[in-house]
């Protein structure tokens, strides 16, 4: 199966600890990721958090299983997503102090069947950019 990778770096007007706390809470992803409309079955076990996120597309709701690995010392959040259709996505977010705020880098690796590849890549990149804009807005408030 094809594997694709891409990254995006942007700045937010909040300290790394504030950004980390927000990203480490699965409930924050409702609206932060534009497709996520609900989060359920949240369970924490040490540095791992698992949950089911419900993504709403035009004609259906897609339940995705997410495992977040948290590292407050870095600080970083790595999310491994298992989605129907044999799509696997890994998003690693690293936070670096920058002036009075934080530089956020999100690196995404996605594995998808050839038939779905273009659609999956287009969606993943669009969601990444919208998530960056929403996180920037939330951290400015």
TrEMBL record:
It holds the Pfam family Polyketide_cyc2. This is SRPBCC family protein.
